[in-house]
Structures are given as C-alpha cells and as structure tokens.
Amino acid sequence: MHSFQINNNVDLIIESSGEPSNHASPQKKSEIELVHQEDHEPVLQSNNLGDEKEIVDKLRIADVPETPLLNGTTSNGGVAGENRVSEWLWTLHRIVVDVVRTDSHLEFYEDKRNLARMSDILAVYAWVDPATGYCQGMSDLLSPFVVLFEDNADAFWCFEMLLRRMRENFQMEGPTGVMKQLQALWHILELTDKEMFAHLSRIGAESLHFAFRMLMVLFRRELSFSEALRMWEMMWAADFDESVVCDLEENCLDALLLNVPRDCEGDTREESIENSDGSSRDGSQSKHGNVEHLTSDNTGMKSASAYNFCGFTKNFWSRNDRMQITNAISSTKNGDDELPVFCVAAILIMNRQKIIKETRSIDDMIKIFNDRLLKIHVKRCIRTATKLRKKYFYKLIKSKNPVVQNGE
Amino acid sequence: MDMSRRALLKVIVLGDIGVGKTSLMNQYVYKKFSQQYKSTIGADFVTKELQIDDKLVTLQIWDTAGQERFQSLGSAFYRGADCCVLVYDVNIQKSFETLNNWHEEFVKQAADPADPGAFPFILFGNKIDVDGGSSRVVSEKKAREWCASRGDIPYFETSAKEGYNVHEAFLCVAKMALEGEHEHEQEHEQEHDIYFQGISETVSEVEQRGGCAC
C-alpha cells in the first residue's frame, strides 16, 4: 500500500522555497498553511536538508520505478540522492505555482482547501508517474474533476484516466502527442477543406501552432469552464466505444496496477473466469465507474446530460459512429481519428470568413485564438467535427482505393 | 532602407515557471498587473509601438511556456528573433540556476552559429518587491557576475507587480534589438516584408490595445 501523507506536500513546498515568493501573492501561502493547520499538524518545521530528505524518503513508494532525474546527471550515489530530493521539491514548487493560477476566477478556488486538493492530486500523480512528473497544462485538465468530485480519490482516477489518453503530451521529451495531432490536422484539412488548407499554406501557418493550446488542454482556455466541460462530455460520448476503453485499460501506469486491492482482484478474476474467453481485463472496468458521476453530479451539466445522446438524436450518433468509421479503414495510431483534432478543424471551418479575411500570418492566427476572438459553439462544433471525421475517412479510403464506393 | 517602413523587432522572453514573464510583458504593454494570469501554454505575444530616437519601431514580445520540456517547441518561435530576454525570480534560487539552460538552448537553436556570442541577450531579476526584499536569495552581485560571464549581458532588477523598472528594461531591449537589426537587415528583409503586410493594417488596433504611445 502507498501510505504517504499527501498533505505534507504543501508543507514541503513552502519549506523548499523558504518564502512564499513563488506565489503570485504572499497571502496565498499563508492561507494554504491555514488549511493544513486545520486539517493536519504541520509536520515539517526544519529547513535543513537532512530533515527534508527524511521526509521525502518517507514519501518514497517502494514499487515505483526509480525517478529519472530531469537532468539525467546521476554521476554518483550521494549526489543522485540529493538531486532526487531537490528535484522532487522543485516539482512541488512548480505544482503550487501553477495551482494558484488555475481557474483562479472561480469562487470555488477562493477556498484554499480546494487549491490544496488540486496540488495534492497533482503531487500524487507526479509521484506515481515519475516518467511524466508534473507538467504545465495538467492543472487545467485536473481542475474540473476537483470541482465535480468531493472525493480526491474520484478526482484522481478520472484525471488519471484522462491522462492515459493524453500522457504523451506531458512527457519529458516534449508534447509529442500534440505534434502528431497537428500533423494529422494538416492532413485532415488537406483532404476535407481545400480553401482553408490553401489559406493556411499561403500565410505560412503550416505548423498549426495556433492549435497547440486547444489540443494540449482540451479547449479549457478557449472556452468558459462550463462550456469546456460540455465539450469534454460530448467529445467523450461521441468517442465512446469498447475498443477505446480496452486500449485505455492497457495503458495503466504500472505503479497503479500494483495498487489494486486484493479483494477487487478476486472479483475481477471471478468475472473473467465467467467470461472465460480471454477478455480478462473487462472486469476491472468497475474501478473507473466513477466517470459516470461526471454527468450526474453537477447541476450545470444537467441540460446536456439529461439527454441520452448529448442533445443529438440517436440517429445522428449511429450515422457518425466512430467504430463504424474507423473500422472501415485500418487507421494507425497517428491522431487522425481523434475527435479533438476534428474539433479544431471544425472551429477553423466554422470561423472561415473571419480567418480568411483577417489573418495574414501565423502570428495573426495565434493572436485570434489566444485572445479568444473566434466563436466556438460547442454543439455545432461537435456536430461539424463528427461529420468531418466521416468525410475525412471517406476521402481517405477513396484516395487509397479509387474503386471503392460509398466508403465500404 | 525605406524611411516609411516600420521596423518589427521580435523579442523572446524565457525563464522558469512562474517567474513573471507574462506579468512583465503585460505590465509593459498594458500597464497593469493581475494575480490571475494563467500559465502560458504554447506561446503568445503582445505588440507595442515605440519611438527610438527618430525611428518608429514595433516591438513584438513573445511569451513562452516556462517548462524545459516545451523547449523543443520554442525553436519554432525563436526564428527571426532580434533579442532574447531571460527572466528569473530573485526569491527562487533554482530559477536563477536554470538560466544557464535557457541561455544555452536559445543559443543552440536561434543564434547565428558562426557568431553565437553576438546575439543580444538581457537579464531581468523580477519580483524584487516581494516581502520588501527580505525573502530575496539571489543577490544583485551574483546576477551581475553571471551576466559578466556570459559576455556582459545587461541586467535589470524589476517588479512587474509594481511596475518598477519595467519600462526602462524593455526600452533597453528595444534598443538592443534595433542595433542587432541593422546588422542583420539583409538576412531578415524578406521575412519582415511578410510581417509588414499584416501589421500595416492592424496598427490602429495595436495602438488601441497598447494604450501607450511612449
């Protein structure tokens, strides 16, 4: 069992920097301190490295692989240990710096206990996934779950599940997932919208870097908090299929797999024996059943979730079913079947006139996206995106095999 | 060079997470400070028109993400840069230590490989207002030593929150960028023509948003 006291992190980070200067406001630190004074005893009072090391060692989880040091300088043992400590403290520092400025306009985060919850969960994630650690952008993805769930464990698992889709973006070697998606986006535009493709080529925007943020934090910065949640819910509903769930199951962090309690494993085994067809992993889905709360817990979401089909007809979904489309062509995992990418394409297309009229360089494109000058109507965006995906695969099949008709 | 043409100077701001890159830029261009800036994902920029001697220039200041793992992306934005601003937080030792890394990476990716020492850098030590200076851990002397070791990089101590020294620091940036620009005029000419096309039509917008003509 992992038995580290998560709330120590807040103490650690404050100790590590000595002063609260890393926060935007000095007040913030004292308020975070208040939190742990209410809930927990302040554990760490000394500022000397030995004590810090002791605390960090206590936090150490035996079954987690060695943390790769950020700078890769593991010259000798003692230094490596010290580096490990200072890297961890640095990670905590960065988490807190970002947490205090994530969705800080929300009343919810005026309560510093909620900020502490966010930083705790990010610290746990950084600990169980040392290859990724903490990376900017994660706090934007986590924040909605902290708002939606009262229980940190629920929020953690939803966040962890989301990162299984997106972990590639946050690893040390850079946001490789997004870079692949941007390439896919370029190809999608080439096949589905000649006019937009030509315009972006003409103004030298082939890198599509203006779409980077949208894909990195899933439209959290381009949309309001509630609109972004609506977008997420609709995207995931539209993309729900068994094969994706199975893929995600396989994508579980090793450290977390080991952590499944014995009795749960027993259940899983029984179920898989019942199935006895080799699909033994299906049983463990119950662990992630929490995801369902997402739709029912928040009143703001009800208008969307009261509808079984996210405001669309059943017919619409079945016509644009992801399985049906992607099965038609053996798509490699290069991002060109992922709905967020098509959503970006849809946003470009829905704002076609403004983009073509007002942009003359990639800088202009970056500006209109960053300053939120584009209209993003969530429902229309998803509708356009799913249709675009269908169109794209149809064109792709046609381009690969001109004899095929009607895509199948 | 055509006198009516406005020079576009591209400036890149680099430094660790939370040292105040976005705040410095916004203080300079919009003269305001907010506690609510979000972390920068990807890259963003602001522009400001100003006059240096008798020359009208447009400063385009690029804000970047402060985490090393996004550096690979940065190179796309570094291209054509005229000056690089390095920022650290005087209250955070580590943000000072990572300057070496930012400096080296930028030189590797953007500076003229034939003469990497010639690229204009400038260092800002930010957040000097915090706790009236009592939480400071990097002394001005240390910072100036570092600057000297990197080929006499100019150094400014700033507070984005209080607007202290921000204007002066960026004015220096603009002057340095402009000097460099003369030397590289030929190289960049073609590239800048593209920018000018866009800018000439958006000047009024820029001025309006910039709020200050200096």
TrEMBL record, chain A:
Domain of life according to the entry: Eukaryota
Protein name: Uncharacterized protein
Species in which this protein is naturally found: Populus trichocarpa (Western balsam poplar)
UniProtKB/TrEMBL annotation, chain B:
Membrane-topology descriptor: Lipid-anchor
Organism domain of life: Eukaryota
Role, per record: Protein transport. Probably involved in vesicular traffic.
Name of the featured protein: Ras-related protein Rab7
Family annotation (Gene3D superfamilies): P-loop containing nucleotide triphosphate hydrolases
Main location as per UniProt: membrane
Biological process according to GO: protein transport
Similarity section: Belongs to the small GTPase superfamily. Rab family.
Keyword Ribosomal protein belongs to the record: no
Organism: Populus trichocarpa (Western balsam poplar)
Coiled-coil features, chain-numbered ranges: none
Matching Pfam families: Ras (PF00071)
GO cellular component: plasma membrane; vacuolar membrane
Matching InterPro entries: P-loop_NTPase, Small_GTP-bd, Small_GTPase
Record keywords, A-Z: GTP-binding, Lipoprotein, Membrane, Methylation, Nucleotide-binding, Prenylation, Protein transport, Transport
Molecular function terms, GO-annotated: GTP binding; GTPase activity
Localization per Swiss-Prot or TrEMBL: Cell membrane
